[in-house]
UniProtKB/TrEMBL annotation:
Assigned protein family: Belongs to the LysR transcriptional regulatory family.
Keyword DNA-binding: yes
UniProt-listed CDD domains: PBP2_LTTR_substrate
Gene Ontology CC, one term: protein-DNA complex
One term of GO molecular function: DNA binding
Source organism of this protein record: Aquabacterium soli
PROSITE patterns, per database record: HTH_LYSR
Record-annotated HTH lysR-type domain positions: 1-58
Alphabetical list of InterPro entries matching this protein: LysR_HTH_N (IPR000847), LysR_subst-bd (IPR005119), WH-like_DNA-bd_sf (IPR036388), WH_DNA-bd_sf (IPR036390)
Pfam families: HTH_1, LysR_substrate
Keywords for the protein's UniProt record, in alphabetical order: Activator, DNA-binding, Transcription, Transcription regulation
The name this protein goes by in its record: LysR family transcriptional regulator
Length: 293
């Protein structure tokens, strides 16, 4: 199997368009299409369904992405074993606990593809050790509303919010839903959401008091509890809409303006490795990933 074709396929899988994958990989669109066609012929399986808005991965594509990503990572690791680790560029990155792990993973994989020798140290405010709040790092992955004073900000993706409910919940089938319908309703609170004040202010104005059954620090936990029937939650749309065990209501009027922009924040002038990382990130956004999320 040609690793270059596999790399082009992974880019198309992540971006969901051949045009965006071509921009991301710095090749032409036909190169991406030919790589996908060659893989489909080699594997004897269709990888994408072509739609007007882009590419829809098949079950075979999902399996290839999972296995192929590991193969590419192993190939990169093999090369690195023959190189001087001390000479590798390094980036220390603090990730806010409310960030979506799937998007963080996609970003880090892209950085490693474009900057093959890059070594990334990822720190979280939840870690309580190195990289915790206040520990110096090269950059922070945060929402624009949380950018530290004096820091520059490079946007990477936008996130819209929606109401997420269990499939058997009354709000799942109600014709119209508003924020006031959450009064007394079992609710899963995401404690590290920067936009929580937006809908809490709306609830306070309407004298809406939900019945908080759980407080969690991550989107994955919140959606898992919703799927288990513990309560409803308000979460970024991109993650919830990919699950088939919850119902997503994007028609709540008070939430339609609730959006956050996620990006990299850094202090001072970007030099050396950080400058290269920002250049790659800007090309990533130009390739259509920001809109795709």
């Amino acid at each position: 199997m040609n690793l270059r074709n596999l790399r082009y396929f992974c880019a198309a899988y992540e971006v969901r368009t051949t045009v965006g994958a071509a921009r991301q990989c710095h090749v032409t669109q036909p190169v991406i299409s030919n790589a996908i066609a060659q893989l489909e012929e080699e594997l004897g399986a269709q990888l994408f369904t072509r739609q007007q808005r882009g590419l829809l991965p098949t079950a075979a594509a999902q399996r290839l992405y999972r296995l192929g990503g590991k193969l590419l990572a192993d190939a990169e690791a093999l090369v690195e074993t023959f190189q001087d680790a001390a000479s590798h560029p390094r980036l220390s990155l603090r990730v806010h606990p409310s960030m979506n792990i799937e998007h963080v993973g996609r970003l880090l994989r892209h950085l490693r593809r474009e900057l093959a020798q890059l070594q990334v140290s990822v720190h979280s405010e939840d870690a309580g050790g190195a990289g915790a709040l206040g520990e110096p790092v090269d950059a922070e992955l945060v929402a624009d509303t949380c950018v530290p004073s004096g820091h520059a900000f490079v946007p990477l993706w936008d996130e819209q919010y929606a109401l997420v409910v269990p499939p058997d919940h009354p709000l799942a089938i109600r014709e119209a839903v508003a924020l006031q319908d959450l009064h007394g309703v079992a609710f899963v609170e995401r404690t590290h959401c920067e936009l929580a004040a937006h809908w809490h202010a709306g609830m306070d104005a309407l004298q809406v008091v939900p019945d908080v059954r759980a407080r969690v620090r991550s989107e994955e936990w919140a959606l898992g509890l919703v799927a288990a029937g513990v309560g409803v939650t308000i979460a970024p749309l991109h993650l919830a809409r990919r699950r088939d065990d919850v119902v997503v209501r994007v028609d709540v009027p008070e939430l339609q303006a609730a959006r956050r922009r996620v990006g990299l924040a850094h202090a001072g002038r970007a030099d050396g490795t950080l400058a290269e990382v920002l250049r790659v990130c800007e090309a990533w956004v130009a390739g259509g990933v920001l809109a795709a999320l």
